[in-house]
Specification:
heterodimer; A: 397 residues; alpha/beta; Rossmann fold; 7-stranded mixed beta sheet; 6-stranded mixed beta sheet
Chain lengths: 397, 286
């Protein structure tokens, strides 16, 4: 009886171990961190990033997961709110790196927290895709941070040149928010305007984040009556209010920004006053998007409850991380050095737009001296009657 | 200059709506309601939902905001503030509770209404020109309704029995209780009215400022500045404080570099409070 009991226990133990091994083999998980502002007035920045990652991860998991070597990995997104605060960002990256053992992180959304987490990225061996624009983030000696979208200093010269050539713009005024990121965007815009030969009429209109009434801010800007008002680095929450204030103050010229916006928000808050507003777009406009992008839109709506056009620029970060890990092989799952070594030669098709001749790569050599930027297509949109129309598409290089 | 003065006037009227509810709750309960901005935001979202999503008339949406926020305010008092104040005589207990409720409400609004900025487009169009200044018709409508609400509120407080009871509680809670007044009930009513005023402000201002789930704290800070300027717990002081802040902000943005305006406002507020800590009106409710 005792022997049969022991045999039974041993059999159960072996079966249990085998089952455990089997489950382990099937359920390999690749955790990707997402750090961004998900509360407060700028919450939409981080939440769009999070929803984009969760939607794409869900699609990949439904297709069976990501193949790395001989294994299939389910993708798990671990999100932390940095509250647009550098202390919260440092605590967040430490949690992701040391507690969740994450090796790849998407976010933060702006410069200050992106700079603040650099020492932790270095110490913990974590690779980061940032939406901050500060050039030094992506230059030597920093090797663990890449730019996940297109920076103001890359967009601005292209947009201003196009507006000068096609709309006869000769004078410009700038409006920006009071903070390190706002100042950096403003400086980039001013440099670009000078290079293109535009006359800068004013650049001292600065507002606090959380401002609700932009009439006082826009009064002086409108009075100068420039051909173009640039809303420098403006968030989707503030853009329609600034546009509305300018138009209600009698401004009839052009307005633009270098950041991505949401058509629904522009429509609800500014209505037809936002017609003609020029902004950075993603791959979501009907004339550009592929079937895969349309599926992503549907999945995004499932995750977030509503589509957001900003997601068209945020979808690339997770896709490029995963495809590069896949190409770099199993070692890159836990070792970012293997991942980084594969960046210069990595190339894949862009599944989000119809034009399959456009490839996704890690670019940025000419800007940062190393390939630390995703080659997100530079899509310049114009808002009109509730939707975006593509003006032109180009690239950062 | 004309534009800056008109901007300040309109801004002041809007700010007055924000500050009234806060000062009423402070006067009645001695509670610095840090969740006031979040109540404002909820009012804006209720109007957005009823008007834009459900397609009901704007007047219905405004009434819905007032009713919903009055209920929320009454529940805040009955479930949280009254109990904490009964068990703790320390003012910081209710302050911490208010701060916690602000975070809770902000998270619930984010979950319920999402992360996007929401706006309500009134079918009032056109822009008036006064000398060299522009005033959109929508702002004129909001200004008139806001002023009407402020006047109605003052009349209610001065000439109705509940208003007189609320003023009596604000003046001396213990003596009022000795007169047989149900303090608990009227405190709840006061909290409900204060919250409904925040809801009305959010409901009206969503038409020109829009609303998002994270803007509550900034609204609360501005409301606190107005109350401190005018004199904490004094209705007329809150109105004066609102117009002072509105004018200073408008003139600051017109004549100072934008980033300096709020620095000047905060430094000015500190200096002012050092000289006159009770605010412009200078004395408790009376």
């Amino acid at each position: 009886m005792r022997i049969s009991g022991m045999l039974l226990a041993a059999a159960l133990g072996v079966t249990s171990s085998l089952m455990s091994l089997g489950a382990h083999a099937e359920d390999k998980v690749l955790k990707i961190g997402q750090l961004g502002v998900m509360s407060g007035p700028s919450a939409s920045w981080g939440l769009v990033s999070r929803y984009s990652a969760e939607a794409l991860a869900g699609m990949i998991n439904d297709e069976g997961g990501l193949s790395i070597g001989d294994d299939k990995y389910k993708i798990e997104i671990v999100s932390v709110d940095d509250k647009l605060d550098i202390r919260a960002a440092i605590a967040g990256i430490e949690r992701l790196a040391y507690q969740d053992k994450v090796k790849y992180v998407i976010g933060p959304n702006v410069d200050d927290p992106s700079v603040a987490i650099l020492p932790v990225l270095e110490a913990a061996g974590v690779f980061n895709i940032s939406y901050g624009f500060t050039k030094e983030l992506f230059m030597e000696p920093n090797k663990n941070t890449a730019l996940g979208m297109i920076a103001t200093y890359q967009t601005a010269p292209v947009v201003y040149k196009w507006l000068a050539d096609n709309k006869g713009v000769k004078t410009v005024s700038f409006v920006s928010w009071n903070g390190v990121g706002g100042k950096a965007n403003l400086d980039s815009g001013l440099d670009a305007a000078k290079k293109v030969g535009l006359e800068v009429l004013s650049s001292d209109a600065v507002y606090e984040l959380g401002t609700t009434d932009f009439f006082p801010v826009m009064g002086g800007v409108v009075k100068a009556n420039p051909d173009l008002i640039v809303l420098s680095g403006v968030s989707p929450a503030e853009a329609p209010l600034l546009i509305r204030a300018a138009r209600e103050l009698g401004y009839q010229g052009l307005m633009s920004t270098e950041t991505a916006q949401d058509a629904k928000v522009l429509e609800e808050v500014a209505g037809s006053l936002a017609n003609g507003f020029i902004s950075l777009g993603g791959a979501s406009s009907p004339e550009l998007q592929s079937e895969y992008m349309a599926k992503f839109r549907d999945r995004y709506v499932q995750v977030a409850g509503e589509w957001n056009d900003e997601a068209g620029t945020k979808v690339y970060a997770l896709y490029m991380l995963l495809k590069t890990i896949e190409a770099a092989g199993p070692k890159a799952v836990d070792d970012i050095e293997a991942f980084k070594a594969s960046l210069p030669q990595f190339e894949t098709a862009n599944p989000f737009i119809k034009d399959q001749s456009v490839k996704l790569r890690w670019v940025g050599n000419s800007w940062f001296g190393q390939p630390r930027q995703i080659s997100v297509p530079m899509v310049i949109n114009e808002y009109r009657d509730g939707g975006f129309q593509t003006l032109f598409v180009t690239s950062v290089e | 200059m004309t534009q800056a003065l008109i901007n300040g006037l309109v801004l002041g009227a809007n700010y007055a709506l924000m500050a009234l509810g806060l000062t009423l709750i402070f006067a009645l309960m001695g509670v610095l309601n840090f969740a006031h901005g979040q109540l404002y935001v909820l009012g804006g979202f209720v109007t957005y939902y009823v008007f834009t999503v459900m397609g009901l008339p704007f007047v219905v949406a405004v009434l819905a905001s007032i009713v919903v926020l009055a209920i929320v305010g009454f529940l805040f008092d009955a479930l949280f503030f009254r109990r904490v104040q009964q068990r703790s005589a320390r003012e910081e207990s209710s302050m911490l509770l208010a701060a916690g409720l602000a975070l809770l409400l902000e998270s619930l609004i984010l979950l319920g209404f999402g992360e996007k900025q929401r706006g309500v487009a009134l079918s009032v169009s056109g822009v008036y020109q006064i000398f060299d200044a522009y005033v959109p018709a929508s702002r004129v409508v909001v200004f008139v309704v806001a002023m009407l609400a402020v006047v109605l509120f003052i009349l209610f407080m001065r000439h109705t029995k509940p208003g007189r009871v609320l003023r009596a509680i604000a003046q001396d809670r213990d003596v009022t209780a000795l007169q047989g007044v149900n303090i608990a009930l009227y405190s709840g009513v006061g909290f409900a009215i204060g919250s409904a005023l925040a809801g009305l402000a959010g409901s009206l201002l969503v038409t020109i400022f829009a609303v998002n789930s994270g803007m509550g704290t900034a609204i609360s800070i501005k409301a606190f500045i107005m109350v401190m300027l005018g004199g904490a717990g004094i209705v007329s002081g809150a109105i004066v404080g609102a117009f002072v802040l509105g004018m200073v902000e408008a003139l600051g943005y017109a004549f100072l570099p934008g980033s300096v305006t709020y620095l000047v406002i905060f430094v000015g507020l500190i200096l002012f409070l050092v000289i006159r800590p009770n605010g412009i009106m200078g004395k408790p409710w009376g």
